[in-house]
UniProtKB/TrEMBL annotation, chain A:
Family: Belongs to the leucine-binding protein family.
SUPFAM superfamilies for this protein: Periplasmic binding protein-like I
Pfam families: Peripla_BP_6
Protein name: ABC transporter substrate-binding protein
InterPro entries in the record: BCAA_transport, Leu-bd, Peripla_BP_I
Record carries keyword Plastid: no
GO process terms (BP): amino acid transport
Domain of life (superkingdom): Bacteria
PANTHER family: LEUCINE-SPECIFIC-BINDING PROTEIN, PERIPLASMIC BINDING PROTEIN OF ABC TRANSPORTER FOR NATURAL AMINO ACIDS
Signal peptide positions on this chain: 1-22
Segments forming domain Leucine-binding protein: 25-354
From TrEMBL, chain B:
Pfam families: ABC_tran (PF00005), BCA_ABC_TP_C (PF12399)
Any one annotated GO CC term: plasma membrane
Superkingdom of the organism of origin: Bacteria
Name of the protein in question: ABC transporter ATP-binding protein
Domain ABC transporter: 6-247
SUPFAM superfamilies assigned: P-loop containing nucleoside triphosphate hydrolases (SSF52540)
UniProt organism field: Oricola cellulosilytica
MF terms in GO: ATP binding; ATP hydrolysis activity
Keyword Metal-binding in record: no
Lineage: Bacteria, Pseudomonadati, Pseudomonadota, Alphaproteobacteria, Hyphomicrobiales
SMART domains per record: AAA (SM00382)
Family that this chain belongs to: Belongs to the ABC transporter superfamily.
Key words, A-Z: ATP-binding, Nucleotide-binding, Transport
This protein's record includes keyword Isomerase: no
Automatic annotation (TrEMBL), chain C:
Domain of life: Bacteria
UniProt keyword annotation of Ribonucleoprotein present: no
Protein family membership: Belongs to the binding-protein-dependent transport system permease family. LivHM subfamily.
Organism: Oricola cellulosilytica
Name of protein: Branched-chain amino acid ABC transporter permease
GO cellular component: plasma membrane
Matching InterPro entries: ABC_transp_permease, BCAA_transport_permease
GO MF, one annotated term: transmembrane transporter activity
A biological process from GO: amino acid transport
Subcellular location: Cell membrane
Topology with respect to the bilayer: Multi-pass membrane protein
Taxonomic classification: Bacteria, Pseudomonadati, Pseudomonadota, Alphaproteobacteria, Hyphomicrobiales
TM stretches of this protein: 16-37, 44-62, 68-85, 97-122, 142-162, 183-213, 225-252, 273-296
Keyword terms of this UniProt record: Amino-acid transport, Cell membrane, Membrane, Transmembrane, Transmembrane helix, Transport
Amino acid sequence: MNKLGKIALAGVAALWAGTALADGVKVGMITTLSGGGAGLGIDVRDGFLLAVKQSGNSDIEVVVEDDQRKPEIAVQLADKMIQSEKVDVLTGIIWSNLAMAVVPSATAQGKFYLSPNAGPSQLAGEGCHENYFNVAWQNDNLHEGAGAYAKDAGFKNTFILAPNYPAGTDALAGYKRFYEGELAGEVYTKLGQTDYAAEIAQIRASGADSVFFFLPGGMGISFLKQYSDSGIDLPVVGPAFSFDQGILQAVGDAALGIKNTSQWSKDIDNPANNAFVESFQAEYGRLPSLYASQGFDTANLLLSAMGKADIDDADAFRAALKEADFDSVRGDFEFGPNNHPIQDIYVREVIKEGDVLTNKIVGVALEDRGDAYAEKCKM
Amino acid sequence: MTDVVLSCTKISKAFGALQASKDVSLDLQAGEIHALIGPNGAGKSTLIRQISGAMKPDRGTVHFLGHDVTRLSAIERARLGLGRSFQISSVIPDFTVLQNVALAVLGDEGNSFHFFRDLLKGRPTVERAETCIARVGLEDRRAVRAADLAHGERRRLEIATALALEPRAFLLDEPMAGMGAEGASEMTRLLDTLRHEAPILLIEHDMDAVFALANRISVLVYGEIIATGTSDEIRSNAEVRRAYLGEEETA
Amino acid sequence: MTIILLIEQVLNGLQFGVMLFLMAAGLTLVFGVMGLINLAHGSLYMVGAFAAAAVAGATGSFLLAMAAALGAAAIAGVIVEMLVIRRLYDRDHLDQVLATFALILIFSEGTRWIFGSFPLYLNIPPYLSGPITLPGDIQYPLYRLVIIGVGLLVAAGLFLLISRTRLGIRIRAGESDREMIAALGVNISVLYTIVFALGAALAGLAGALVGAIQSVQVGMGEPVLILAFVVIVIGGIGSITGALVGSLLVGLTDTLGRTLLPVLFGTFMEASAATTVGAAIASMLIYILMAVVLIFRPTGLYGAR
Amino acid sequence: MMRREQILNGAVLLGLIAVPLWAWSSGEPFIITLATKVAVLGLAGVGLNIALGTGGLVSLGHAAFFGIGGYAMGILASHAQQYVPLFEWPLLVEGTKSMPVIWLVAIVFSGLAALLIGALSLRTSGVYFIMITLAFAQMLYYFAISWPAYGGEDGMAIYVRNSFPGLNTLDPIQFFAITFVILCMTLWFNARLVRSPFGTALAAARQNAERVEAVGIDPYKLRLAAFVISGMITGLAGALFADLNRFVSPTMFGWHLSGELIVFVILGGTGRLLGPVVGAAIFITLEHVLGGISEYWQIFLGVLLLGVVLVARGGVIAVIAGKGVAHD
């Protein structure tokens, strides 16, 4: 975010602070703004604040804090927001492990939590809570989409890899849930690994006909660059995280033509999305990312509920949230029984628009997909 | 002359091509001061390190109080009662005189694994330490940090530390080094009384002190003992004269 | 696992090791000559990668980008040495650890402030991209072979520098006796600055070379830094030979461990458990290697005893 | 000089209790949480200080013990939470939500780990010691990340803070009181330790190991014992930290944490009784205040730390109370 934008934002925040109304809603946003992965948090924040600004609603006050991607810090910030700032709603967390640290105790204290990015399986299944709403996806969704796409594309022998941590094992499980062929290999890499030569050699030797990977952040960039340089030309499919707007330029042409799955794309043609893409570019001078779209939707969901119910009447407010009566930029959107989205998962392809790498939708992987854990949720 | 406290037999030690000790045999008898002299680089410190256990000889044995201690570490030898003071003044700089000596008493008592009682409030320990400090005449300086002591005082602190171990033999490495004439004579008097407590193997450059104190003297040249005997015998030994005065004689 | 795959993995291990050597050489030199633990060495690696990405983005030339990486890291090294590091030579390791830890914070957040939070783009130039076929029908990326080549060249150059040149003689003298070479009229503070800049430039080169096949982002230096420390500790701190041997050992252990352990565990465990357990042990392997080396040789393989 | 340090120590402890009391009376529970964090991380630093300050053992791996303490809490509490015994054979062991039991387990296991790690690491010295301790902590870090049974990288959330007889631990001020009392007890223990025969011999071994050997004391054993005590205290702090956050994750094993603990010790003053507490207080206050000012607050933190190393040698306590570390 440029400095000008930041100053403007500080001004807006100051304005809100000055005009806090008795029955306004105070939102605590805990997100990652410094260190590795800060790009994701910044996008969520910018998308969220853009929606708030566009609403012109002065009953909402947003407090933003940086969790440094450390769970301990996130927990302490949540304590601070609940105890000192007396927020009504929490949001903003990017990473599943941070969400697992914060969400259960926040919802247990009667706060609402709206997730703009993370959707760990525990919170969708046994650990679900009536005050927890996920506005992005259950973690498995995009991987399930990739598995479904692989099935449709007729892949018979996929090599799959992910980092050795819970989200990684979930990712491979999600892919396998819809994929019906054989596995040429299944590899868990070290979290934070930057060199994939050994894995790529295994892929080459495995006789696979396709590759699926989940390697968020810098790991994905490294993998794709090294994969494209290896001369292997098997089709690759992955979740949108490694092909998103913020990261794509760093991957470069290595990503061109790769199919990836997402619940959102900037070329989804509906009025809400067109307006969002245009206004985000106007406001921040860059194309919006998946994360920005999720932040934007999260704010709009909250605003829609505020229009229907008073936050002090928790039951009414919860019902208003559950209705999901807002124009999601991703098109159709509703909540399943566990307050997780039921939505379409699209297949996108990486293309070049002029000099800029971006995605276009080439198909639908799954329609009206909920998630695999909803039945375990007893609210 | 039969009461041998410490002896080494045919000790050899080489560093690459340099033969630092060559078949050195040496003994220390009850009640005596046995001085080890030799030109710089003769291997005196290497020898004393092997006797104290800080270094293992390549060949040869060390016996102390009838035990073969060749394979024991410096710590174990110290526990048997081999008291050493160092060539390079090596008291604990941040500790006071009292703390330095109390540490040695502690080592002698053999149990440093007390976590709660205050060392300096333990009466027997402190009393023993203070006795030793008084014997070297540092009682006025007991609360001064070792680092702030004058050089001669630090030397005496070393002796007090060695005393506190109530050793069965002393290894003293140049206790007079860097002392003025007055300090040296005071130290000489002190060592003279010490020998009745336990025999002393003394390395010293101050020849006046050596000849005044030593019952026997051994001369080490190029890692080899070329002569052992009383002061008079050494003074008149031709080989010793050659080793020390060689150049003058040919000149 | 076929022989061809094994050979390819050995090459991968070699390439990883050579890259580590570029980092470790500077680290071990700085420690050997100046007795300084420099945690900020990884930041110089990052500076190299960012400089290369910025220049490559502006000019499109890969060679210019490499030159920029060398230059930028060396300049950053000189500035840091003159402002901060030279005040630390006489301090104990503790102060050095703290001060260079502080430098990491400054470098990382400073870089983020200038370049933003998103990874930068740096890619292999067309003439170095794609695989080539080695004898035995092994397909191997040309660029990785180039890295191996550059690394070995740098290693040879360093050995020549240390053993044959006037600067090398002074460096060796500086390792053994500071006062002596000062007494001989060598300007020790200039020598130290040169050595530090040399180490920084090597780190910058490593960052730029690797940046082309990995992600150029803030914090990229830290994992490599820890690995480089593992390398020099295994090799024996201050020894260039040790750094080379340690690098290759770590590179090969890590790469082969990653691929062979899951297979090995698969012989007596159920497949998916073998994959996760194998991967878990593999990620600990180089630390286990380091601990074992230190337990048997407390000053590393080539360390002064 | 000693007097000034004692007065300062008193003032620091008084401050550490006054701030949360004020926050309590004026309804600022988050300040109490911050003060609790200072007390807990200060406690971890006090543990490290025994090895580092008194014993001269620069451990860059104390996160290992901090993490073990944290996981002791996480594992016991999660089993109790789910009513699943830890293991049933050879004897039935149930999880627990009782703080004293958890603390005991944390202390025992971090002590055992310190015994093992110390026994191997103390064969080396200097930079090698720094690095081998780091290596052991990294091993545990990667193990924790890829160990699925207890959450892997996600860690474990314990939704309700564990219990202490007679107190409501969910009340911030009561939980603070627990940590503060433990901190004071540990400080008292540490003050005794430094003056004890053991502490004296340990400090002597730091300054001149050969001398200690010459008086017949084995420095290796002293250091190992110090390392174990140090690890146990840091492990206890880990269990408290986990309870403060009601959450455990592998980041407790991370090398950044080891680095931060060292920063606390040096910032306050190496070897000073209250050095780590002062260091932790300054660090956490800065993090809180600077974090509110700028996204790039870590730059300022870096500059400040650099200033302390280059200018304020001996840490903050040395600047206020004078340089000398007195011993009697």
